[in-house]
Amino acid sequence: MARELRETPSQTAGPYVHIGLAPGAAGFDIYDQELGWDIAGPNAKGMRMRVEGRVMDGTGSPVKDVLLEVWQANADGQYAHPEGGAVEDGFRGWGRVITDFETGAWAFNTIKPGSVAGRNGTVQAPHLNLWIVARGINLGLHTRMYFSDEAAANAADPVINLIEWESRRQTLIARCAEEDGQVIYRFDIHLQGPDETIFFDI
């Protein structure tokens, strides 16, 4: 007679992600240069910008132990990939940041990407690809950040158009502002609640 086995307790991503994946930001001086901090590099052409925001839980409170990774194309819409086109020397197109332990805020500096070739001859609007992991999240969450000043490109984007409701599409749009001559895009990520950000099953 077969015995009935009990379910193994689950384990979620915890605060250790900061130490293992971004030790410098967590106060550990381990590496001379951490992998992933230099997203665009000094030689990248295009508009320099700052992206900032917070990750919010279902009550609207900031989550303070989040790690975010970002992938992006360069200003010509090319990714730093062996099968892609040429990119500038030093353009990494990938970065990693964690939220501030006190405020929950995150930010990084990079360049604005260009439109990217999609499937079957389609063109994707300029966007950033984001992956979010934190305590309480069993699997990393994938989302995208589009730009509010790219309305025409956004309207034709094949990924955004998969989302039926216009109000839900807005959860992927970063708002543009300018402070002291610097272009800033604000993008808050809501894990739950009425303003929950669209996440993709990849």
Spell out the blueprint of helices and strands.
Layout: H1 16-21, E1 48-56, E2 66-72, E3 94-98, E4 105-111, E5 116-117, E6 123-124, E7 127-134, E8 141-147, H2 151-156, H3 166-169, E9 173-179, E10 182-186, E11 189-190
Parallel strand pairs: 1-10, 1-11, 8-9
Antiparallel strand pairs: 1-4, 2-3, 2-7, 5-6, 7-8, 9-10
Q: What do these coordinates show?
A:
- The protein has helices spanning 16-21, 151-156, 166-169; strands at 48-56, 66-72, 94-98, 105-111, 116-117, 123-124, 127-134, 141-147, 173-179, 182-186, 189-190.
- The chain is mainly beta and 202 residues long.
- The mean pLDDT is 88.
- It is globular and about 60 Å long.
- It is 8% helix and 30% strand.
- The longest helix has 6 residues, at 16-21.
- The strands form two sheets. Strands 1, 2, 3, 4, 7, 8, 9, 10 and 11 form a nine-stranded mixed beta sheet that branches.
- The chain is built from three helices and eleven strands; from the N terminus they run H-E-E-E-E-E-E-E-E-H-H-E-E-E.
Provide a concise account of the structure shown.
This protein has helices at residues 16-21, 151-156, 166-169; strands at residues 48-56, 66-72, 94-98, 105-111, 116-117, 123-124, 127-134, 141-147, 173-179, 182-186, 189-190. The protein is mostly beta strands and 202 residues long.
